[in-house]
Specification:
The complex is a heterodimer of chains A (541) and B (395).
Chain A: H1 9-24, E1 32-37, H2 44-55, E2 60-63, E3 74-79, H3 87-101, E4 105-108, H4 150-154, H5 157-166, E5 177-182, E6 203-204, H6 224-233, E7 248-253, H7 263-275, E8 280-283, H8 291-302, E9 306-310, E10 328-333, E11 349-354, E12 358-361, E13 372-375, H9 378-396, H10 398-404, H11 411-422, H12 431-434, H13 441-446, H14 449-455, H15 465-477, H16 485-489, H17 494-508, H18 512-515, H19 525-531
Parallel strand pairs in A: 5-7, 5-8, 6-7, 8-9, 9-10, 10-11
Antiparallel strand pairs in A: 1-3, 1-4, 2-3, 12-13
Helix pairs in contact in A: 6-9, 7-8, 15-17
Chain B: H1 5-16, H2 18-24, H3 51-72, H4 80-103, H5 113-125, E1 130-134, E2 137-138, H6 153-158, H7 160-168, E3 170-177, E4 185-194, E5 197-200, H8 202-205, E6 214-216, E7 224-226, E8 230-235, E9 248-257, E10 267-271, E11 286-287, E12 296-301, H9 311-317, E13 325-330, E14 341-344, E15 356-359, E16 364-365, E17 367-371, E18 378-382, H10 383-388
Helix pairs in contact in B: 1-2, 3-4, 3-9, 4-5, 5-9
Chain lengths: 541, 395
C-alpha cells in the first residue's frame, strides 16, 4: 500500500464531515459503499487499518462474494453513519481510496438513474417535466396493440410449446431455473407462481437475509420485479401467461428500484445465481460499468448460464451489463415489428424482442381484471427472451446441449448464434442497431443446434472492457475522443466517464436541452485533472 | 348551432398550453398598440403561425448567420440566407403541426421537444424582446432585430432608469475553474436583497446535470459550502457596455439553500466586498410585501451559453453570450401552477435561473424566476411565497 499526500481541500471537507457524523452517529440511511478490486491479496483487517490510519474514518471491509474464492479480489468497503455525498465527491473519494490501497480500482455504489421505467409522467408544465423522457413512451390509447397478447403470439411462443408437446419433449420451460435479479416480487400476486419468495435459492441483497419481497414502496416504481417475473413464468390459466410457465423463476432482490441502481448488489446477485445453479439469468436493469459485475457475468457465462440483459430505456445507448460483450443485450420492438421508441440501440444489441405493451402482472392490482396489463420497456423484451431460453433448454436438454459444445464455446454463444440464425427479419429491419432480428421461439426450437456448431463463428466477448467505454464515448461525443484515451485506459475512471456520457444522452432529448444552458459536466477533480484539455469534448450540449 | 372552430381550438389550448393559447388561440386579436394611455388587450400579435412569423424568424437567423460569417469567413458552398428561409419555414410548419396535434386531442406532454421549440420560435418573435443591458442604458428596440416588439417602445423609454437600476443590482453567478481546465462560465443569475446578500435558485448551486458549486453540510439541512476547486463570484458588471465597469464580489457563504424536496427552489448567498475596492454596490432590491396584479413585467438574467443553440433561441437572443439582458413580457393565469408561483411569458433561457421579476410600475421584486417552459409558461415564485418561506427570515 502506498502513502498518499494530504487530500485536497474538498476531499478534506468531505472527510471532516464524515468524521463528525460518525462521532455523533448522525448520518442516516445505508452506509456509503465502495467496491475495491485488489491487485494482490490483502487482508480485510489491513485495509481497515490503512484507511482508518490515513483518513481517520471508521470503515468495515468484507468480501463482496463471500463464497467465491475466484472473485476474492473484490471487497466491499462500507462507511457507516455518513451521508452519501454528490457523485463527484464519491468518485474523488474512490480515487483517493484506490491510490491509498494501491488497488486496481475502487468504485462507489452510485444509485444511477439511467434506466427509465414507465411510471406516471409528471405534470407537463412542471419543472420535473423538463427531464421527463416523454419521447420514449408509446401512447396507451393511440398506440394500443390490436392483439393484447401480441408479444407471446408474435414470438411464436405457443407454437413452440406445442412443438415440444408433440415431440414428447419437456415443454414450457419445465425444470429450467431462471434467476431474476430485480426488485423482488409481490409473492401473492395472482399472475405469479405461488410462494416464489420461499424458494431456498432466492435471495435478498437489499434487506440482507430477508425474503426477496418487493415492499412496493411508492415513489420507486414499485412492482418492477413482479412484472418481469410474470413475463417469464406466469402460470396458466390466468389473465396472462409467461413465455415459460413451467420454468422455475428464482427472484433475487438486489435493488429497491431499477431506476436507482447500485451496481455491487447486482454483481452479488449474479454470483449468487451462479452458485445456486442457475440455467438462465435475466436482468431487466442497467446502468454504468462495474468491474465486479463484469467479473460476475463472465463467470456465469463460463458456467454455461445464459445471461440476458436489457439494452436499456430512454438513453439511446446500450447500458451495462447489457453492453458487456459477454452478455446478450435485448433491444425492444412493437407489434408492428418496428423499434419501440424508447429502446436503447446500437451494435451491442444482439437481437430484439417485444417491448411495447407486453402483457405483464401489475403489482398495483394483485388480482382481478387489472392484474395484467401492457408494460413498456426492454425489461420485458429481456424477460420474454429468458422464458424462450428456458423453452430451448428444456426442449433440447441443457446437458445434451453442453455436451455438443465445441472446445472454448459456451452455451451463451450457442443460444445467441441460434436465435440470430432463426430470427424474424422484416425487410426494413435495422440490423445495425437492433441486432440480428426479432426472436422466433418456434424457429429457435426447430433449429438443429449442430448446424450452428458446425457453422462455427466466434465466441462473442472478452475484449478489454475499456473498448465498450471508448465505443460509448465515441458514439456519444463524436470526434476527438482520442484525447481521453489514457484516461479511458485507467479503469478507475470508467464508471465516471460512463456517467458523463449517459448524462448527456439523457439530456439531449429532453425539453431541458432546448430551454436550459448546460454547465460543464459533473466530474471529480481527479478525473478533471487527468482529462485536462480533453474535458471540453465532454461538455453537455 | 354551428361550431366555432376557433372556440374549440381555444378551449383545447387553454387547457393544455396557456402560453400558446394566448398567442394562437383567438384569431384576429392583433393589438400592437402604443401604451400612451390606451387600453391594451395584449402585447402580442395573434392568429396561427404564418408567413410573417417565418420572415421574422428568418431575418433573425440571417442576422446571426451574418455575424458568424463575418467573424469566421464565408461558408463554402452554402447560402445562409436560403438556409435561414428554409429553417424558418420548417419551424412555422412544425408549429402549425403541433397546434393541429393539440387540436386533435393531443396533450401537452405528447408534444416533442422539437415541436415545442418550433412553437416557441414563433412565440418569441412575436414581441418578446430580450434587450441587452449596456451599462447605464438599455439597448433600443429595433424594428428589424426585435420584430413585433413595437408595443414595448414606450415601456423601454419610460422606465429605462428603473431598468438600469434593477440591472445594476443583478449579477451573473460566474464560475472559474481553479484547476484551469474549463473556461469561466455563468451558471445563473443572482440579485441583491441586502447589501451583502444575493438571492438565486437552489438549482444554480445544485444543477440537475452538471457541475455543482457547493456541497451540503451533513446534518445541516439548509446550508452548504462552496467547493474549493471552483471560484464563484457575483459579477454585477457583466453586460454589453463597451468600456465595461468592473464590479465583482466574491461569495463567502451559502447562507440558506432550500432542501432538495422543498418546492421553493431558492438560495441566499452572502457576498464579500467588491474586488474593485473603489466601487460601491448598488442599492439592493426590495421584495414586494403587498400583492399586486401586474400585467406587464420584465425579467433580468444572463442567458447561458448553449453548445448547440436552437433556432428559437437564436431568433430572440442571438447567440447567448451570458451577458445581462432584460426580457419583457406579461404575467399569465396566476392561479395555474399553484399558490406559490405565477406564470409569465417573457423570453427566458437557461442562465436566467435565479433572475428577479419586476413590474414596470414599481421598483419592487414580485417574483423569483426559476423555470422556463415554452408551452405552458415560465415560472416564478411569488414575493409572498418567498416572504412566508423559511428563507424569509433573512430578507
Amino acid at each position: 500500500m502506498t502513502e498518499v499526500a494530504v487530500e485536497n481541500a474538498d476531499l478534506a471537507a468531505l472527510l471532516t464531515a464524515w468524521r463528525q457524523e460518525q462521532a455523533g452517529q448522525s448520518g442516516a440511511g445505508r452506509p456509503v459503499r465502495f467496491v475495491i478490486e485488489l491487485r494482490q491479496p490483502v487482508s480485510d483487517e489491513a485495509i481497515v487499518r490503512t484507511v482508518q490510519q490515513a483518513l481517520s474514518i471508521q470503515v468495515s471491509v468484507f468480501p463482496l462474494f463471500p463464497n467465491a474464492s475466484d472473485l476474492a479480489q473484490f471487497r466491499r468497503l462500507s462507511v457507516p453513519h455518513v451521508t452519501r455525498p454528490d457523485r463527484a465527491d464519491l468518485f474523488e473519494a474512490a480515487t483517493r481510496l484506490r491510490d491509498l490501497l494501491g488497488a486496481e480500482t475502487v468504485e462507489p455504489d452510485l444509485g444511477t438513474n439511467y434506466f427509465d421505467c414507465d411510471c406516471e409522467p409528471p405534470d407537463p408544465g412542471a419543472p420535473e417535466s423538463a427531464d421527463w423522457t416523454f419521447w420514449c413512451w408509446a401512447d396507451s390509447e393511440k398506440d394500443k396493440p390490436a392483439d393484447r397478447n401480441w408479444a407471446i403470439n408474435k414470438s411464436l411462443v405457443k407454437q413452440a410449446w406445442e412443438l415440444a408437446i408433440s415431440e414428447g419433449r419437456l415443454a414450457k420451460g419445465k425444470d429450467v431455473l431462471v434467476f431474476q435479479p430485480d426488485t423482488g416480487v409481490a409473492p401473492q400476486h395472482a399472475e405469479l407462481p405461488p410462494n416464489l419468495d420461499a424458494d431456498p435459492r432466492s435471495a435478498n441483497f437489499v434487506e440482507v437475509g430477508e425474503r426477496p419481497i418487493d415492499p412496493l414502496r411508492t415513489g420507486l416504481n414499485p412492482g418492477h420485479g413482479t412484472g418481469t417475473a410474470s413475463v417469464v413464468a406466469s402460470p396458466e390459466p390466468g389473465a396472462m401467461t409467461g413465455s415459460a410457465p413451467l420454468a422455475t423463476l428464482v427472484p433475487i432482490r438486489c435493488t429497491e428500484s431499477v431506476s436507482v441502481l447500485d451496481q455491487s448488489p447486482v454483481a452479488q446477485a449474479v454470483n449468487h445465481a451462479v452458485e445456486k445453479g442457475a440455467h438462465v439469468i435475466t436482468m431487466s436493469l442497467g446502468g454504468i460499468p462495474s468491474r465486479a459485475l463484469h467479473a460476475a457475468v463472465q463467470k456465469a457465462v463460463r458456467n454455461n448460464i445464459i445471461v440476458l440483459a436489457a439494452a436499456g430505456n430512454c438513453v439511446n445507448e446500450v447500458v451495462w451489463p447489457a453492453r458487456y460483450a459477454e452478455v446478450i443485450a435485448l433491444g425492444g420492438i412493437n407489434e408492428a415489428f418496428k423499434p419501440w421508441r424508447g429502446s436503447c440501440f446500437g451494435p451491442a444489441v444482439a437481437f430484439s424482442a417485444p417491448a411495447e405493451f407486453v402483457l405483464r402482472a401489475d403489482a398495483k392490482h394483485p388480482s382481478g381484471e387489472l392484474a395484467a396489463s401492457g408494460g413498456q420497456g426492454t425489461s420485458f423484451a429481456t424477460a420474454l427472451t429468458a422464458g424462450i431460453a428456458a423453452l430451448w433448454l428444456a426442449f433440447h436438454g441443457r446437458d445434451a446441449l453442453i455436451a455438443k459444445l465445441p472446445e472454448g464455446r459456451s452455451l451463451q454463444w450457442l443460444f445467441r448464434s441460434l436465435v440470430a440464425a432463426t430470427a424474424q427479419v422484416p425487410g426494413d429491419f435495422d440490423r445495425e442497431n437492433f441486432g440480428a432480428g426479432i426472436i422466433d421461439a418456434l424457429a429457435l426450437l426447430k433449429a438443429d443446434p449442430s448446424v450452428a456448431i458446425a457453422y462455427g463463428g466466434t465466441e462473442a466477448a472478452a475484449g478489454p472492457s475499456s473498448d465498450e467505454l471508448k465505443d460509448l464515448l465515441v458514439r456519444t461525443f463524436g470526434i476527438g475522443v482520442e484525447a481521453v484515451g489514457p484516461v479511458v485506459d485507467d479503469r478507475q475512471h470508467a464508471a465516471e466517464l460512463a456517467c458523463a456520457a449517459f448524462d448527456r444522452l439523457r439530456a439531449v432529448r429532453t425539453l431541458r436541452a432546448h430551454v436550459e444552458s448546460m454547465p460543464p459536466p459533473l466530474l471529480s477533480p481527479a478525473l478533471r485533472a487527468k482529462l485536462g484539455t480533453g474535458l471540453d469534448i465532454l461538455r453537455l450540449s | 348551432m354551428p361550431i366555432n372552430i376557433d372556440e374549440v381550438i381555444a378551449g383545447r389550448l387553454e387547457r393544455v398550453a396557456p402560453r400558446a393559447f394566448r398567442m394562437f388561440g383567438v384569431a384576429g386579436e392583433s393589438t400592437l398598440e402604443s401604451t400612451g394611455g390606451g387600453v391594451q388587450q395584449s402585447s402580442s400579435s395573434a392568429g396561427l403561425p404564418n408567413d410573417a412569423d417565418a420572415r421574422a424568424i428568418a431575418d433573425a437567423l440571417k442576422r446571426e448567420s451574418g455575424r458568424h460569417a463575418a467573424a469566421a469567413g464565408p461558408v463554402a458552398g452554402r447560402d445562409l440566407n436560403i438556409e435561414a428561409d428554409a429553417i424558418a419555414a420548417q419551424l412555422v410548419a412544425r408549429a402549425n403541426e403541433v397546434l393541429a396535434q393539440l387540436r386533435a386531442g393531443g396533450s401537452l406532454g405528447e408534444v416533442s421537444a422539437e415541436g415545442a421549440y418550433a412553437l416557441e420560435s414563433v412565440m418569441r418573435v412575436r414581441g418578446r424582446p430580450a434587450l441587452n443591458v449596456e451599462g447605464d442604458s438599455i439597448e433600443p428596440i429595433d424594428g428589424q432585430k426585435h420584430p413585433g416588439s413595437e408595443f414595448w417602445l414606450t415601456f423601454r423609454s419610460d422606465y429605462e432608469n428603473d431598468l438600469v437600476s434593477v440591472a445594476s443590482a443583478t449579477g451573473a453567478v460566474m464560475v472559474k475553474d481553479r484547476m484551469g481546465i474549463q473556461p469561466n462560465w455563468v451558471q445563473g443569475t443572482a440579485w441583491l436583497v441586502k447589501s451583502n446578500l444575493v438571492m438565486t435558485n437552489r438549482h444554480v448551486l445544485f444543477p440537475p446535470w452538471g457541475m455543482r458549486l457547493a456541497r451540503r453540510i451533513p446534518g445541516e439541512t439548509t446550508t452548504a459550502r462552496f467547493k474549493s476547486d471552483l471560484e464563484v463570484t457575483i459579477d454585477f458588471s457583466f453586460d454589453d457596455r463597451q468600456a465595461g465597469r468592473a464590479l465583482t464580489c466574491p461569495v463567502s457563504e451559502v447562507l440558506y439553500v432550500s432542501q432538495d424536496a422543498d418546492p421553493i427552489d431558492v438560495a441566499l448567498i452572502r457576498i464579500g466586498s467588491p474586488v474593485e475596492t473603489a466601487q460601491e454596490l448598488p442599492a439592493p432590491l426590495s421584495i414586494s410585501s403587498s400583492p399586486g396584479d401586474y400585467q406587464y413585467i420584465y425579467v433580468m438574467g444572463h442567458p447561458g451559453k448553449m453548445a448547440k443553440v436552437p433556432e428559437n433561441v437564436l431568433a430572440v437572443f442571438g447567440t447567448p453570450n451570458e451577458r445581462k439582458r432584460v426580457s419583457f413580457g406579461e404575467t399569465m393565469d396566476t392561479s395555474a401552477p399553484g399558490p406559490n408561483e405565477f406564470l409569465h411569458d417573457a423570453s427566458t433561457i437557461g442562465g436566467y435561473s435565479g433572475g428577479c421579476v419586476l413590474p414596470f410600475l414599481k421598483r419592487e421584486v414580485i417574483g423569483l424566476h426559476y423555470y422556463g417552459n415554452p408551452l405552458s409558461g415560465n415560472r416564478a415564485f411569488t414575493a409572498a411565497a418567498l416572504r412566508a418561506h423559511p428563507v424569509g427570515q433573512f430578507l
